[in-house]
Amino acid sequence: MSKKIIYWHRCDLRLHDNECLHLSCVDNQQVLPVYIYDERHYQNLDLGFRKTSYQRYLYLKDTLNDLRESYKKIGGNLLILFGKPEDLLPQLVITHQCEELIYQKEIMSEETSVESQLEINLKLTPCKITAIWGKTLYHLDDLPFAVKDIPLTSKAFRINTSKNAEPRAVFPTPTFINCVQLSDYGDISQKSKIGFTEQELQTTYDKKAFPAGETAALQRLQYYTFDSHLVETYKWTRNKSLGVDFSSKFSGYLALGSLSPRLVYFTVKEYETKIKRNISTWWLIFEVVWRDYFSFLGLRQGDKVFFQGGHLNKKAVWEENYELFNKWKNGETGIPFVDAHMKQLSRSGFMSNRGRVNTASFLAYDYRVDWRWGAAWFESLLIDYDVCSNWFNWNTQALHIYYTNPVHQSVKYDKNTDFISSELDYLNKLSKYNRHAPWLLTDEELSDHGINEYHRPVEIYKKWNRSIINIEKLITSKI
User: Which of 67, 58, 59, 72 lies closest to 14 in space, CA to CA?
Assistant: First the structure.
């Protein structure tokens, strides 16, 4: 009789290039794939919002639905539960007399503490635990440095790693799974147990722009490379904010593990061999390695990334100003380039890289509000949320990099205000360049244009003066 194995899915919601699944299916072992909605992920924070929003939940639910359907096609299914994994998994082990539990290892303490408690809770059972490293392009065991020596700069990490390590080959996608048969595999949504409010249920993510799940992920990878050749222009379009094809849109898939970073790497390498290699194809791989850098930096620095001074303990004083934070959060700062991106996030669950840079810089450098509040807001809403990428990027923007001027960037990256107009349509009543700086108009002038929704900035900072003068010249010249 073949032994029974539980495969606990976490941020590895795919069948392709999946070492955990590969090991589970060896020798026709009976496998029970399971995903557990961790109840702690949906708790309300002191800041007044949920740790994981309904938008993020919906994207996850749709990803899980796609994974369940993929399992069904190869003879399996996916068990869905809600609660605490460290409590529920031992119960499954006992109920089904499983001899092994396989899962993908995580990095940060919130996740690894669950792993530690799970190990304790399974001690009284004969169940073996197999934890697999599978989140990154490069395997932890292949890095040219010990964890304590992982470089603190991305350049040092990238150069040393790319010179001295190679990504491992992808694992084959299984065509059959000997799944443990259950009468009930659980409701894919578990929505009633989470307890979303009626107001939360009115929100969603942009399903058309960001279809969830492994099936869509593989289609997007094929489309962005061999079908459309958009990968060849990635470096020059990636700073845009409007549309779907200005960037790869792989981040949501990578965050939930419905797309393997190794498959991205080898697909781009194949494209370079068969079609074309240029700075853009190199840059896309560069971004995947950057993701690795933050993951491994998280392994070295741990909870320091959540400290007020960041993982390098920088000295900084932050305001606990809820009024300013809510203006920022709700897209009511009066700076259209900032507000449009914040509206985009609330509407779609996504924000472009350029938007993230500008909104984070504004909250930290202009409002001086605790950057960790902003990072928590992004964590709540972003469908591509990854703990290391999100929190280390906020560390970088708030503590380690130069100020980003949102007024200057508005003209540089949205000169014709196409993006601003798409999210703040009431500003379309103004002339093109007035949309960059509506505060230049009086209340009477705004009213004459029928604009009553606009919120004036709490302050016009001197560091914006040159950019404002340039906007005034554009308005005057009417170019």
Answer: 67
